[in-house]
Amino acid sequence: MFKKLLELRQQKAQIQAEMRAIMETADKEQRSTTEAEGAKFDELRSQVGSLEKEIARYEALTDEQRNQAGAASETASKDVSNDELRHWIKTGELRSLATNTNNGADGGYSVIPQLDRDVMKRLSDDSVMRSICNVVRLPIGAKEYKKLVSNGGAAVGHIGEGEKRTETGTPTLNEVTITLHNIYAYPKTTQEILDFGGVDILGWLTDEIADTFTETEESTLTNGTGTKQAKGFLTYSRSADKDKTRAFGTLQKMEVPVAKLTADTLIDLLFTLKSKYRKNAVWVMNSQTAGTLQKLKNGNGDYIWRDGLQVGSPATLLGLPVYYLETMPDVGANQPFLAVGDFKRGYTIADHETGTRTKPDAITEPGFYKVHTDKYLGGGVVDSNAIKVLEGK
């Protein structure tokens, strides 16, 4: 049943892609859709409507199945044993593993649900960017995440009774596109390790994969170029212009001589954010920057940094939580060493429904067993007014 649900979602995504192509063609040629294109579009829209009804029926059934006590849900595959994992790594045979496959269409890659869950949980726990940003999961068939963002510009008018209404300004909409890219890990072990019955194979795989993915994701989501990888928020162009005058997609920055960094500087930076962003804002910096900022005092001689009151709770700076993002630069000239903002609104991370895919390799390096692991990742700034950056000069 779950497999049928995925197929229906994929069909819907493909039809929506056809609809989008029709409109993009007409827009590119700067014309209205032809009668034939309009008829085709309406037909595709009708198909999407039918699929949505069918998808809703299957979703209702799978939700009911998942909620029934003791019911065997197709999405909740049984846990795999060490013996099964050893056999799979050594031979590549799935045997009784509860895996999702595509009849070899993916080059022999498989998704072990338990491993995928454990890896994604570790990523959620260990990744700073995942903890502070918006995270979406794209369905099978989707390669991009698209969102329309209003850039303001709407206006209202005031009139008296019986007076004629005139046209007002309309808001400007900008489309943001986040493309998925492939990231991978290649954990390796020896014959001897696999032969020892006491070794937790699933735990070893989870640790190796999650550690590599966390490091890669943090680096990419902070400093990625956008070419064959996600675009990090520090890679976007920055300007000192204010929100209403700055180009869409450009972050606002403040520049300060490193030797003149004070508590007032941070207050000025914080209040470049509008109030709707300040209420959920957080600070991000690396540990070296944190060591510098902890020494700053206000005009009364009080430290503006406060350590967390409980174990595991974040420290605060000017009342807002602090997160250590070690992939950010140190304090220095021409370095964007500090950022503050509502990252849930400002930056979106895109995952893919296929999850963490794995493929054993016992051939390329004699005496060693490798597990090639990959997943899809995308990321980009969605609201460039929600994040502000402090640069040294």
Provide an overview of this structure.
This protein has 393 residues and is an alpha+beta fold. It has helices at residues 2-28, 35-67, 82-91, 113-126, 128-132, 191-195, 201-223, 263-270, 275-278, 287-293, 343-346; strands at residues 134-138, 144-150, 173-179, 181-185, 188-190, 238-239, 251-256, 282-285, 305-306, 316-317, 320-324, 336-341, 347-352, 357-361, 368-381, 387-392. It is built from 11 helices and 16 strands. The strands form 3 sheets. The chain has an 8-stranded mixed beta sheet with strand order 6-7-16-12-8-11-10-9. Strands 1, 4, 5, 13, 14 and 15 form a 6-stranded mixed beta sheet that branches. The protein has a two-stranded antiparallel sheet with strand order 2-3. A hairpin with a 6-residue loop joins strand 14 (357-361) and strand 15 (368-381). The radius of gyration is 26 Å and the shape is flat. The termini are far apart. The model is unreliable at 65-77 and 96-107 (pLDDT under 50).
What are the SSEs and their pairings?
Layout: H1 2-28, H2 35-67, H3 82-91, H4 113-126, H5 128-132, E1 134-138, E2 144-150, E3 173-179, E4 181-185, E5 188-190, H6 191-195, H7 201-223, E6 238-239, E7 251-256, H8 263-270, H9 275-278, E8 282-285, H10 287-293, E9 305-306, E10 316-317, E11 320-324, E12 336-341, H11 343-346, E13 347-352, E14 357-361, E15 368-381, E16 387-392
Parallel strand pairs: 1-13, 6-7, 7-16, 8-11
Antiparallel strand pairs: 2-3, 4-15, 5-15, 8-12, 9-10, 10-11, 12-16, 13-15, 14-15
